[in-house]
Design a protein that fits this description.
The chain has 20 helices and no strands. It is an all-alpha fold. It is a multi-pass membrane protein.
C-alpha cells in the first residue's frame, strides 16, 4: 500500500514536471486564449455599444429622418420629452435628438443597472458560452423588432428589454477575462476588449449614415433599416460568439477545439501562484454580498461612474458637438467623429503596455485623466474650431484609455471568485449611472454645451481625488503588511497594486 505522504510528493512532482513542459508552450497557450476569449468578447461588445446607441443615429444622419421617425412612431408630448426642456437656442436637429433620446435612453439604463448583479451570478451558473451568446442573440432579435415597431410604446418596451439583456454582457466579460489572466497581463487584454468597442463606436455613425440611404428600399424607411441591418449583424455575431467564447478555466477543456485538461490545469496553477483564487467557490448570497461592506469596491465604482459620464457623453453627442457646436456639415461631422476614437485606442494600447510592464496602475490613471482635464476646457471654452477639435481628441482619449486601466486596477486589488463577480457588477452599475447623467447634461446649451462640460470636468476632478485617496490607503496597507502587522485579502505576501 502506498503511503499518503509519498502520493502527495509524487503528485507535486508530476505537476512540477507538467508545468516545466507546458511553460515552454506558455506563449502559444496564451495566444490561443487571446484569440478565442478576447476576440470573441470584443466582437460581442462592439455590437453591444452599437445597438444601445443606435436610437440617436437617425438624428445624427439628418433632420428629415428624425421627423419621419417621430411621425411613424407617434412620438408626441411626454412620450419623447424628458423633464428637462431644451433651450430655444438649440439647432433643430439637437432639439429633435433630445426628444428621441431622453425617455428611451433613460429607460434603457434603468433595467441595465438593475439586472447587472444577478447577471454575474448567472454567467457562473450557466457558463459564459451559453449565457453571453444567448443574450447577444436576444438583443439582436430586439433590434430587428425595433425596425418594425409601429408605436412609441413598442419602442419603449424594446429599449427596456434591451437593458435587461445587455446588462449581463460587460460585467460578465470583465469577470470572465479577469479569471483567465495574471494581474499584470490583464490591462492589455482589457484594452483590446474595450478598444474594439471604441472602434465600433467610431464607425457606428458612418454605418448608420450609409444604411439610412436605403430609404424606400422594399418600401421601408431609412431609419428602420438602421435597426434591421444592425439587428441582423448582432444575431449573426451571437451565433459566432457561441463558438468563440470559452468557459471559465476550471471548465474550459469542454469548450470546442480549445485547450486540453492539462493545459487548463496549467493555467489554473499559474493563476493560483499569482493570487490564489483560481478555484471556483460555492455560491451563497452571503458570500456574494459580503464585498458590499468593503469601501474599496465602492471606490472603484465611483471611479468608473466618473469615467463613463465622459465616455457616454462623447459616444452620444460628439457628432452633434461637431455639427451644431462647431458648424460642420452632417457628412463632415460623421467623418471627423472617427479620428478621435482611433487616437483613443492608440493611447489606450500604449498606456496598457506601460502599465503591465512597470506593474503600476496609478501613474497611467493620472496621466489619462490629465489628458481629459486639458481637453475638456479646450473643447468647451476656446473659439477656434481647430483648437476645439484638438480638445476633442484629448478628451476622448483620456476618458476611454482610463476605462481598461480602471478595470485592471480593480482586478489587481481584489481576490475571490464571488468578490470578483460582485465587484464587476457594481463597476458596471455605476457605468449605467454615468450613462444616465451623460444623457441629460450634454443635451443643453448648444453650441458650447457648458453644463455638460462643467459636469464632465467635475467628474474628472472627483476621479483624480478618488485615485489619490485609494493609492494613499493602499500604500499604507502595504507598509503595514511589510511590517507583519496586516495580512491583505487573507493571503500572506499579497500586496495592493498602486
Amino acid at each position: 500500500m502506498a503511503i499518503a505522504g509519498t502520493e502527495s510528493v509524487d503528485v507535486a512532482k508530476e505537476s512540477a514536471q507538467d508545468d516545466y513542459i507546458l511553460s515552454h508552450r506558455e506563449k502559444q497557450i496564451m495566444r490561443r486564449i487571446d484569440l478565442r476569449l478576447v476576440l470573441g468578447a470584443a466582437l460581442g461588445y462592439s455590437v453591444n455599444l452599437m445597438d444601445r446607441g443606435n436610437v440617436g443615429m437617425a438624428a445624427i444622419a439628418g433632420v428629415t429622418d428624425v421627423r419621419r421617425m417621430l411621425k411613424d412612431l407617434d412620438f408626441v408630448g411626454y412620450r419623447y420629452v424628458c423633464p428637462v426642456t431644451p433651450f430655444k437656442s438649440q439647432a433643430p436637429r439637437v432639439a429633435l435628438m433630445n426628444r428621441i433620446k431622453s425617455l428611451v435612453v433613460l429607460m434603457f439604463f434603468v433595467t441595465y443597472v438593475t439586472f447587472q448583479p444577478p447577471s454575474t451570478i448567472l454567467i457562473r451558473k450557466i457558463g459564459p458560452p451559453k449565457f453571453l451568446s444567448v443574450i447577444i442573440f436576444s438583443w439582436g432579435i430586439l433590434m430587428l423588432g425595433m425596425g418594425f415597431a409601429k408605436t412609441w410604446s413598442q419602442v419603449l418596451a424594446i429599449r427596456i428589454l434591451l437593458g435587461v439583456f445587455a446588462a449581463g454582457y460587460f460585467p460578465g466579460c470583465m469577470y470572465l477575462l479577469s479569471c483567465w489572466y495574471l494581474r499584470y497581463e490583464v490591462q492589455k487584454r482589457f484594452s483590446v476588449f474595450y478598444g474594439v468597442g471604441c472602434v465600433a463606436s467610431a464607425l457606428a455613425g458612418i454605418l448608420a449614415f450609409g444604411l439610412i440611404q436605403m430609404d424606400g428600399v422594399q418600401g421601408i424607411s431609412g431609419w428602420r433599416w438602421i435597426f434591421i441591418m444592425e439587428g441582423v449583424i448582432t444575431v449573426g455575431l451571437g451565433i459566432l460568439c457561441y463558438i468563440l467564447i470559452v468557459d471559465f478555466p476550471d471548465k474550459a477543456s469542454r469548450s470546442w477545439n480549445f485547450l486540453t485538461e492539462e493545459e487548463c490545469a496549467f493555467v489554473i496553477r499559474r493563476i493560483d501562484r499569482d493570487r490564489l483564487d483560481a478555484e471556483p467557490e460555492a455560491f451563497t448570497l452571503r458570500r456574494f454580498l459580503k464585498p458590499a461592506l468593503d469601501i474599496k469596491i465602492w471606490g472603484f465604482a465611483v471611479l468608473f461612474g466618473c469615467l463613463t459620464i465622459n465616455t457616454y457623453a462623447m459616444a452620444y453627442f460628439l457628432p452633434l458637438i461637431l455639427s451644431d457646436g462647431m458648424g460642420f456639415g452632417v457628412g463632415a461631422s460623421q467623418c471627423l467623429s472617427a479620428p478621435p476614437w482611433v487616437f483613443a485606442v492608440l493611447v489606450m494600447f500604449a498606456t496598457a503596455w506601460v502599465g503591465d510592464t512597470i506593474q503600476r496602475r496609478v501613474p497611467v490613471l493620472l496621466f489619462n485623466v490629465c489628458l481629459s482635464l486639458i481637453g475638456l476646457p479646450m473643447m468647451g471654452f476656446l473659439k477656434g474650431n481647430a483648437a476645439r477639435y484638438v480638445g476633442v481628441f484629448l478628451t476622448v482619449a483620456g476618458a476611454n484609455a482610463n476605462v481598461p486601466a480602471c478595470m485592471a486596477w480593480q482586478a489587481n486589488n481584489i481576490r475571490g471568485q464571488w468578490t470578483r463577480a460582485f465587484s464587476s457588477a457594481t463597476l458596471i452599475a455605476f457605468d449605467g449611472i454615468g450613462g444616465i447623467i451623460a444623457s441629460l447634461v450634454f443635451e443643453k446649451d448648444a453650441p458650447r454645451y457648458r453644463p455638460g462640460v462643467y459636469t464632465a470636468l467635475g467628474a474628472n476632478i472627483v476621479f483624480l481625488l478618488t485615485v489619490l485617496s485609494l493609492a494613499l490607503w493602499y500604500r499604507h496597507c502595504n507598509k503595514k503588511a511589510d511590517r507583519g502587522e496586516l495580512i491583505i485579502a487573507g493571503v500572506a505576501g499579497f500586496r495592493y497594486t498602486i
